[in-house]
Amino acid sequence: MKKILIAILSLSALLTACKKDTKIIDAPGETTIKFDSKAGASEFELNKEFTINNRTYSFNKLRYWVSNLKLIDTKGNKFSVPDSYYLIEETGALAIQDGNYTYPATKREDIKVTGIPNGDYASIEFSIGIEQKYNDNLSLQVGELSQLNGMTNISWMWHTSYIFTAIGGTVKDGTNSKTIKAETGLNTNYKTVTLNLPVNIKVGSQTPTSVLINVDVAKILDGIDLISTPTIGAGQAGLMSQLADNYTKAFSIVSAQ
Fold first, then answer.
1. Which tens digit of pLDDT belongs to each residue from 95-142?
2. What pTM value is reported for the model?
3. CA-to-CA distance for 201 and 225, rounded, in angstroms?
4. What are residue 32's DSSP bridge partners?
């Protein structure tokens, strides 16, 4: 009996020691990234007047592709989010495909990313637009890429390609008023943005995390004279390039938690 008791106590001690030595590996986690549109210090809204660079703007759409999202941990390792092609937008209803289809009014600011390896993350990286592989061949479908959202163009190249960004509405300078349509596209205007988080976030299965990013329309239009050139597309290559560069400066992280 005494030998049996000793054996039980020894086994119990062994199991306890094993438990102490066993590391609990957390499961993958998730985070929500919000792209909050602004016009300077004001909240962005459709069909509302804003003063930007001493001119009065009213917008009826703001749309852009966020693609190839990556989360970068404190050691510099990158987690590439699979199939990460997201259309961020605030727009009224759009008639597309020569009026054969109506794309409904939509407001979409959030991206929810799941399956993130647990760890401490210090920055995020994403691109504005669609890389050449998919931009040159719209038959390749991945993520949210689609020809049914009015973000493709057949007049820029010999074949149909994606519109990377689109902003539209009106601009007034005194009594001079113009309808504006400013778009970017083409492979040369595919841009990548890297933003450092104000604090590291710990991603794991126990605690959902979030990142808030401001997107400033005033910075998108910085140095762009839409009174003299109210339409920007591939025919205005220099202005399109400047507009694409401006988008990379328009993003800033407000918080990470």
1. 887 778 898 999 999 999 999 999 999 999 999 999 999 999 999 999
2. 0.88
3. 40
4. 112, 210
